[in-house]
Amino acid sequence: MTLKRSTKLALAVAAALGFASSANASLTLIAPENFSGTGLGAVNTILTIQSPANTSTEFGIVEWNGSVDVITGATALTGASQTQTRLLSDLGITSASTLRVVFNASEPGGDAITLNGLTLTIYNANGTSFFTAPLDQTYNFANTQTGTGNSGFVFGLNGAETTQLQNLLNPLNGNFSSLRAGLVAVASNATGGNETFFVANSTVAPPAIPEPESYAMMLAGLGLLGFIAGRRRRSHT
Asked: pLDDT band at 236, cuts 50/70/90?
């Protein structure tokens, strides 16, 4: 009965996240990245979720109420360094443009997983919301890397939300010690885990992700170059 209630709650959270995303999309996938050997505890993990053997849905929430962390979700792990809010100053965040949320999926055998929802909330010291950024869409990852800390899917703010957050941060003059980051996440099609999420600072500009049409043009261009090179080789023989 508890698991059934938990699954229903997870689906309700996913639905709420989906509604928020459609109204105010802001977190978007930048790129997968290899973090080989990082491991749990070596990064500033904010949320860890893991599905029990008899369910494939994972969800967890960690919030700051002004005094302590509030952790919700039957699949949210609460051991040392597993789930907790973090101060932006401790995370090394220097600006809105360099803020990243990293999803480290650790499925047995590199199995697939679906990230149904992910919301970053930055809290004031008193527990009120300073800024909220939900996911822009559901993401289906066909493959993952085995082992915690081996790889991560990196998310960042879109242009409009980057500007909005930066405008909120500017009056603080770089002193972010009163702000804390919390997360809400829902994943499905999970076959084990654990899945971890952390917030980090990236000083490297995210690469532009080509549209499908751009990939087609690139492939056509490479094919044309290969054809020309082949003709040149034949003309010299």
From this structure: low
Per the listing, tokens 């505890």 go with: 41
Of 193, 220, 224, 222, the residue nearest 52 (C-alpha): 193
Instruction: Pick the range with the lowest mean pLDDT from 179-183, 189-193, 195-199, 210-214.
Output: 210-214
Range with the largest mean pLDDT of 21-25, 176-180, 216-220: 176-180
Of the pLDDT bands very low, low, confident and very high (cuts 50, 70, 90), residue 234 is: low
Full 3-state SS string of the chain? CHHHHHHHHHHHHHHHHHHHHHHCCCEEEEEEEECCCCCCCCCCEEEEECCCCCCCCEEEEEEECCCCEEEECCCECCCCCCCCCEEHHHHCCCCHHHEEEEEECCCHHHCCEEEEEEEEEEECCCCCEEEEEEECCCEEECCCCCCCCCEEEEEEECHHHHHHHHHHHHHHCCCCCCCEEEEEEEEECCCCCCEEEEEEECCCCCCCCCCHHHHHHHHHHHHHHHHHHHHHHHHCC
Q: Where are the domains of the chain?
A: 2-206, 210-237
